[in-house]
Amino acid sequence: MAKEKSSIRKIAYLSTSKCNSKCVMCNIHAKKPTKDLTPKQLKKILSDPLFKNVKVIGVSGGEPSLHKNWKEIYNTLCSSLPNLKAIGLTTNCVNSRKSIDIIQYYYNQSKKRNIKLSLYISLDGVGEIHDQVRGIKGNFKSAMNVIDWLKYSKINFTCACTVSKINVLNLEELRKFCDKNKINIRYRLASKINRLYNNDSQTYHQLSKEEKKFLINFLLEEIHRQKRSLLQKITYIVNKKKMKKEKIYQHIISILKGNKRTSPCPHSLQEAICLSNNGNLMYCSVASKIIGNCLKNSAKNIYLLNLSHLRELKGEKCKDCSHDIIK
Ligand code: SF4
Fold it and tell me: What is the distance in A from the centroid of ligand 1 to the CA of 256?
């Protein structure tokens, strides 16, 4: 890369396009899965200079536990990225056994390698509401099985709730449930995202004026609650995390009010990149087109030769982008 400051520090890695959910805000399950990278192919791709300074990788999908070589994929990420400090894993817990297996492996290996692990469990409502959003009967129960196991095993995790028209008016119930069960949860907006083929699906664009108002008040209350608990907590790390949450909610509120993004995103700042399950490279997962395939060309060359598209994104899409990845 031309300048050190534009080096990529983070990869959003969509490890597989296979998914066992049928979420109302995503259509990936309706598409024929494409071929996932093998560990060998991934290793070759990650040896490209574009990735030499990567410190953080977020593994998602589809559902990452459905990659047939998920263990080897984890090991390849760790061995191919010499500066890796943190790894994130998101799982939908549709199959609680598979989710527990992948979490346990990531947890044990990350501990051994001194890599920080952030776990995200999808939880979009209580009982039927969650099942309705996820399109899978029994998913609330299977998600709670995983959550109970995580609590029993004393493994830190965060639940992630994607807010759409289906669950927006049930958020109070979810908040009470999480409080009662001491579950840390964060809220994000269901948004139009190219890679999820969800142009016609349930996104925040379909929220009515009243629903948007409800959500804004709900998020403001979340910010107040965090400030209250901030006074009680004194550790720097906890506070830093909570301040980031506040920043994200302020950003979502701004978008819901029809205003612009309040913070830039690391993709637009040339600090993050999106790598898909078959080696396709995108500047971000939200609005970027596929800029090339890393099995065919060097990732660095693909990245540098398409910067005019990143400029287009910055000029046309970023200011209204609701995605909650912020700097
Ligand atoms: S559209 Fe812009 S702000 Fe949104 S994720 Fe992509 S690069 Fe970031």
Answer: 17
| pTM listed for this prediction | 0.90
Where are the domains positioned within the chain? 4-204+265-320
Residue 100 banded pLDDT, cuts 50, 70, 90: very high
Residue 8 CA to ligand 1 center (angstroms) comes to 15
* Measured distance CA(298)–CA(54) in Å, rounded: 16
Confidence of residue 120 (pLDDT cuts 50, 70, 90): very high
List pLDDT tens digits, range 239-268: 556 667 888 999 999 999 999 888 889 999
Token code pair at residue 184:
């840390």
Q: Which of 3.20.20.70, 3.40.50.2000, 1.10.10.10, 3.40.50.300 is the CATH number of 4-204+265-320? A: 3.20.20.70
- Closest to 231 in 3D by CA, of 220, 242, 222, 221: 242
